[in-house]
Design a protein that fits this description.
Order of helices and strands: HHHHHHH
InterPro entries: TMEM175-like
Strand content: under 5%
Largest sheet: none
Helix content: over 70%
Number of strands: 0
Catalytic activity: K(+)(in) = K(+)(out)
Number of helices: 7
Distance between the termini: 22 Å
Membrane topology: Multi-pass membrane protein
Low-confidence stretches: none
Protein name: DUF1211 domain-containing protein
Pfam family, one: TMEM175
């Protein structure tokens, strides 16, 4: 199957995810600067989530730039990734409204971990199924970056259960690691 339909579907799902996140934002109840204080945690969590969705969208684009064709297994692996990304609006709203509560922040971390695993699974499926152009494999720093991200996400979950802001700090650190997108091979 041609990869274009899968890319278009993924782009559409990601656009809807961002739309859902922005529709969850509530405006302040007043017009004074201090009226922003109650919505600031939600806005900051939205910003972080927007960056994460953007990181996945950019890296998905780079990944599929190397792909020639997809099959049913690749489509299911892509849906698996999109499922976890589609939960980002839910955990964004929850952790944004409860930034100092352990369970919402830990669940935000669980979803980020599963997104990361989903992306690695998709990448591996495409590789093993011979869907990519022949060329060099990922550089070792990319594999280390993926592993480091998953380990940090896994660490953030118990950290958030112990002290929610510590888990949130790890989420920010991992996002900063990925601001430079994966380079096409």
């Amino acid at each position: 199957m041609n990869k274009v339909r899968l890319e278009a579907f993924s782009d559409g799902v990601i656009a809807i995810i961002i739309t859902i996140m922005v529709l969850e934002l509530k405006t302040p109840h007043g017009a004074a600067p201090h009226d922003l204080a109650p919505v600031l945690p939600v806005m900051l969590r939205y910003l972080l989530s927007f960056i994460y969705v953007g990181i996945y969208w950019i890296n998905h684009h780079y990944l599929f730039d190397k792909v020639q064709k997809v099959d049913g297994v690749a489509m299911w692996a892509n849906l698996h990734l999109l499922f976890w990304i589609s939960l980002i609006p839910f955990v964004t709203a929850w952790a944004g409204e409860h930034p100092f509560d352990s369970v919402p922040v830990a669940m935000y971390g669980v979803v980020l971990l599963m997104c990361s695993i989903g992306f690695v699974v998709l990448d591996e499926v495409l590789r093993r199924r011979g869907a990519m152009h022949s060329g060099p494999a990922h550089p070792s720093w990319m594999e280390r970056k993926n592993l480091a991200s998953m380990l940090l996400y896994a660490l953030a979950i118990p950290l958030a259960l112990w002290y929610a802001p510590a888990g949130s700090a790890v989420h920010v650190i991992v996002a900063l690691l990925w601001l430079r997108p994966r380079a096409p091979a």
